[in-house]
Specification:
Chain B: Its main location: membrane. The structure holds two protein chains of two kinds. Chain A is of the alpha+beta class. Chain A contains three helices and seven strands, in the order αβαββββββα. Among the domains of chain B are: 165 residues, no CATH class; 114 residues; 99 residues. Classes of the chains: A alpha+beta, B alpha+beta. At the A-B interface, helix 1, strand 1 and helix 3 of A face helix 13, strand 1, helix 14, strand 2 and strand 8 of B.
Chain lengths: 154, 645
């Protein structure tokens, strides 16, 4: 079997340079791919107050987080759609979600919803995440509540 | 008392880790160096024994529900089934760090007991590196998170374990994952020792290969178990969420995958020396970052047991020291590693280089996607999340050329490969790939290009991999070839499962009264009953769903809405009927107040193939590991020539 496999004129040292170039190109390509995809697919997190401050365009995919407002949860006649309001103790936003809500979805509890606003300003949630256990508060929600409370007290 | 003994054993183990770390460096003037170096192996064995004792004593405390131990009181409960009392040992921060140390010590003992083809001095250096890494974690455990801390007043009952974690799949997920992470520490230690000793070369690659394979297989198994758990336990049928915590385990796996292929090139062709060393360093660094990210509370999820910035800072410093130190050594020594052999572009090694580049690029985009939200948060731009759309748009396209090449690579020989027969060998896989894509298009009505490519690639890879084995005597085929073929076949299985379940899932969300029926993908579900049931530490509402197809009764599903008593927590227990061609997945929701029950039912075609593929990959890795690295001649034989013969 032919054991000498080096291409004529291609010394290992040169080949190493070529490989290095390829590796750098691959990494640069991955980085460029990643960053361009981030621009189009990163989802921004909004607290209800943020929605009033700078409203996302209808249809834009965002995350909306806060507390489920007490007394706001209603089941629509189809039996599958829930209407409720998400609040950060300053402003609140109406949300609709069709499906089975997570086990820990409750009034007064932290929640993160993913979806978009419709033309009427109702947030159409495609998924609802509730806190995982008693110790857990989604960090974004904790952060936004803190912010708003600070604003109210100061 | 037993717990105090465990605590003492942990301190002693740390002392032996120190001895292990110092052994190859100690030189008493009148003494010969050999004798000190010889201490590394007994020290590693003693350390493993002592950590096992420490871990055993903690297991004992959990098994006997000794609530005077803080950790037990916070995480266990007398009513919990024994399996979960035991898995509760590592279902918390301190215990999981102790498990990490245990696995690390066991790996050290394995290094001590296994053959040492590179000599005793090299082994002592590897053990020294392991000792140094372990010392950091001992310091962390003993100073910042002592698992053996007692409470002044023992409560009469414990807090219990998060019910989501009370699951057999999850009981074994962390140990497997840790075996993988820690296994990569062996590769890391080998790499550092090789840099110190300037022994980067084929012999080194052959020696490190079994450890890389073991780590890779364990990591793959751990990831598979975690994904399977998420699927059946979280109650919405997803199996991979591109959650940062999942990515933290995927990245070391990708690095290990690249590493085990580059190790093969180094062993066979003496090429890719620096790159292989770098991958070994990066692989374990990512494992540590993974542990850090999960344990520090930087990411809050079901995995983050406690949010404690002090611990996070400790782990961060540890991480910076180890990774920084290793990279510094690499930077200083890499240029002194002699240039290895070159090679022809169209060859087995050429394909493996392409594999490495694509895997590294895949690793890069996952890293960017996982790290970006943290970066943005630190910069204070506002929280963002990077989800599946990003990863599907970046990681997916990179995997297409990778899978294309995976089918071709094994047909190429080491050294300049002849390509004249290649087209003939790949004709059948190519035809079947097109046929499956056409079938999916025409019969399954798949229109998404990405899904059609997925189907084609899974057939392409699966058939080409079978073709490697076709016509060979099973018992005369080298185990390494079997391992490779199994691992590649596993990828084909997983890819097919992901594609099919993604493209063909049907779902049904209904409100049913007792006696009413609904249909999904040809399966009729009739809600017969909803009744209360009780288990050891939970009560539940359980639905009875009669499933039939074309009038033939098929099975009965019992989805539950459970309420655990300690701690109080609702969970959804999905009912799953698994068939080779798909799963029926039913979830019971809440009653709507007028006698109707919410039901969410999915038909998920071929979803079980995803995890079957993961296990097949791991099995392939394990099989390869047992192949002697010295079987160089048989493995070097061109696979394609045998197929053509």
């Amino acid at each position: 079997m032919n054991t000498n496999t080096i291409k004529p004129g291609m010394k290992p040292k040169h080949q190493r340079l070529v490989l290095l170039g390829l590796a750098l190109a691959a990494m640069a390509g991955a980085l460029a791919l990643g960053i361009s995809a981030l621009g189009t697919s990163a989802t921004y997190f909004y607290a209800p107050s943020d929605v009033f401050a700078h409203a996302p365009a209808p249809g834009e995919a965002i995350r909306l987080g806060g507390l489920v407002q007490k007394g706001s949860v209603q089941r629509l006649p189809d039996g599958l759609t829930l209407a409720f309001r998400v609040t950060d103790n300053a402003r609140d936003v109406p949300v609709r979600y069709t499906g089975i809500v997570p086990d820990l979805f409750r009034e007064g509890q932290g929640v993160i919803t993913e979806g978009h606003f419709d033309a009427q300003g109702t947030f159409i949630a495609t998924s609802v995440l509730a806190k995982h256990d008693e110790k857990y508060m989604p960090p974004e929600v904790a952060g936004s509540l803190h912010k708003v409370q600070g604003k109210v007290t100061s | 008392m037993i717990v105090e003994l465990g605590h003492a054993a942990l301190w002693l183990a740390a002392a032996f880790a120190l001895l292990q770390a110092l052994a190859p460096w100690l030189r008493a003037p009148a003494d010969d160096a050999e004798r000190w170096t010889g201490l590394a192996v007994p020290a590693a064995l003693a350390q493993a024994l002592l950590v096992s004792l420490a871990f055993g004593s903690l297991v004992w405390a959990f098994a006997t529900s000794d609530f005077s131990v803080k950790l037990v009181a916070e995480n266990s409960h007398t009513m919990k089934p024994m399996l979960y009392k035991l898995s509760g040992v590592w279902g918390n921060h301190e215990g999981s760090m102790l498990l990490w140390i245990l696995v690390m010590a066991v790996a050290g003992a394995a290094v001590s007991l296994a053959d040492s083809p590179l000599g005793d001095r090299f082994r002592a250096l590897v053990l020294s590196m392991q000792g140094i890494i372990a010392l950091g974690f001992y310091a962390f455990l003993l100073a910042a998170s002592n698992p053996f801390a007692r409470l002044a007043i023992a409560p009469t009952q414990g807090n219990g374990l998060n019910p989501l974690l009370q699951d057999p799949g999850l009981a074994f997920h962390p140990p497997m994952l840790y075996a993988g992470y820690v296994g990569l520490s062996v590769a890391f230690a080998f790499a550092v020792a090789a840099l110190l000793e300037r022994r980067v070369g084929p012999a080194w690659a052959a020696a490190v290969r079994p450890w890389v394979l073991a780590a890779w297989a364990a990591l793959g198994c751990g990831i598979t178990l975690g994904s399977w758990w998420a699927y059946y336990e979280l109650g919405w049928g997803g199996y991979w969420f591109w959650d940062p915590v999942e990515n933290a385990s995927l990245m070391p796996w990708l690095a290990a995958t690249a590493l085990l292929h580059s190790v093969a090139v180094l062993a066979k062709r003496d090429a890719l020396r620096n790159w292989t060393i770098l991958l070994a360093v990066v692989g374990f660094s990512l494992s540590m970052i993974g542990t850090f990210v999960v344990r520090s509370g930087l990411l809050t999820s079901v995995h983050a047991f406690a949010v404690d910035p002090a611990r996070g800072a400790f782990l961060l410093v540890l991480l910076a020291l180890y990774i920084g130190g290793a990279l510094l050594l690499y930077a200083l020594r890499a240029s002194t590693v002699a240039v290895g052999e070159g090679f022809a572009p169209v060859s087995r090694e050429g394909a493996l280089v392409a594999n490495n580049l694509l895997l590294a690029a895949g690793l890069g985009v996952v890293f960017v996607g996982s790290g970006y939200p943290l970066l943005v948060d630190v910069l204070g731009v506002g929280p963002i999340s990077v989800g599946p759309p990003y990863f599907n748009a970046t990681f997916g396209p990179l995997m297409i050329p990778l899978v294309l090449l995976m089918a071709v690579g094994p047909f190429l020989t080491w050294g300049a490969a002849r390509t004249d027969k290649l087209a003939r060998k790949l004709a059948v896989p190519g035809l079947l790939a097109v046929a499956l894509a056409l079938y999916a298009f025409a019969v399954w009505d798949v229109r998404a290009a990405f899904s059609l490519i997925g189907f084609a690639l899974s057939a392409w890879l699966g058939v080409a991999t079978l073709a490697i084995l076709w016509g060979r005597m099973p018992w005369r085929t080298p185990r390494a070839t079997w391992g490779m073929a199994l691992a590649h076949l596993g990828v084909a299985f997983t890819l097919f499962g992901i594609t099919a379940s993604g493209a063909l899932t049907r779902e049904l969300l209904v409100n049913l009264r007792l006696g009413e029926s609904a249909e999904v993908a040809g399966y009729t579900m009739k809600l017969v009953d909803v009744a209360p049931v009780a288990g050891a530490n939970w009560t539940a509402l359980e639905a009875t769903l009669d499933v039939s197809r074309g009038g033939q009764p098929l099975t009965v599903l019992h989805p539950q809405a459970r309420l655990y008593t300690s701690p109080m927590m609702d969970t959804t227990e999905a009912a799953i009927h698994t068939r080779i061609n798909g799963d029926l997945y039913a979830v019971l929701g809440k009653p709507d107040g007028s006698g109707r029950w919410q039901l969410h039912v999915w038909w998920k075609p071929f979803v079980i193939w995803i995890w079957a593929g993961g296990l097949i990959m791991a099995l392939g890795g394990a099989l390869s590991m047992t192949a002697r690295a010295s079987a160089r001649r048989s493995a070097a034989q061109p696979v394609g020539a045998l197929v053509a013969a």
